[in-house]
Design a protein that fits this description.
heterodimer, A: about 120 residues, mainly beta, B: mainly beta, six-stranded mixed β-sheet
Chain lengths: ~120, ~110
């Protein structure tokens, strides 16, 4: 069974750094794209980007380029979303998700990680 | 970037009724269109991919249609558990954008 398990909720201050994680199991982690989706409070879904863990090829949305870093460590079957300097506007639920094949629709979803940025 | 516009924003219907949700793309996505359902406090769930193929385990009361720029999701007979927010997503070109969502509420 494919499972994506995300790290727990975070409360941070503006300007702090953060790295959240998404651990895949039940499949060959290196061989499938894995992406990130943002959902701000009370708002819709936003596609942030996606990574292929085997070679770390990454495709980023221009809306998030330079704001976050998507990475993966295939040795521990884990993908990451990282900020170097958080803003209050980064407050959101972040989901990792995986297509069944290729870089396509998201068939499998993590449970979400709530990030709260507040002074 | 392809913009997806969903209509209506909110749809108020009763259990047993038929629901039709629309998604229009700013340029052709051929059939690279998916639909998701999201309930409060839950992650989204894939319903439809390839514009008209049901995902694993999705009841046949859910159906998708369309190609190019105009798509629809139809729920033939609403069950109480179908009241949720629905999103379309195009994955024909990057970034793989979502629509803004349609909230299906109980009338």
């Amino acid at each position: 069974e494919v499972q994506l398990v995300q790290s727990g909720a975070e409360v941070k201050k503006p300007g702090e750094s953060l790295k959240i994680s998404c651990k895949g199991s039940g499949y060959s982690f290196s061989s499938y794209w894995i992406g990130w989706v943002r959902q701000m409070p009370g708002k819709g879904l936003e596609w942030m980007g996606i990574i292929y863990p085997d070679d770390s090829e990454t495709r980023n949305s221009p809306s998030f380029q330079g704001q976050v870093t998507i990475s993966a460590d295939k040795s521990i079957s884990t993908a990451y979303l990282q900020w170097s300097s958080l803003k209050a506007s980064d407050t959101a639920m972040y989901y990792c998700a995986r297509p069944a094949y290729g870089d396509k629709q998201f068939d499998y979803w993590g449970q979400g990680t709530l990030v709260t940025v507040s002074s | 970037e392809i913009v997806l516009t969903q209509s209506p924003g909110t749809l108020s219907l009763s259990p047993g009724e038929r629901a039709t949700l629309s998604c229009r793309a700013s340029q052709s996505v051929t059939s690279y269109l998916a639909w998701y359902q999201q309930k409060p406090g839950q992650a989204p769930r894939l319903l439809i991919y390839g514009a008209s193929s049901r995902a694993t385990g999705i009841p046949d009361r859910f159906s998708g249609s369309g190609s190019g720029t105009d798509f629809s999701l139809t729920i033939s007979r609403l069950e109480p558990e179908d009241f949720a927010v629905y999103y379309c997503q195009q994955y024909g070109s990057s970034p793989k954008t979502f629509g803004q969502g349609t909230k299906l509420e109980i009338k």
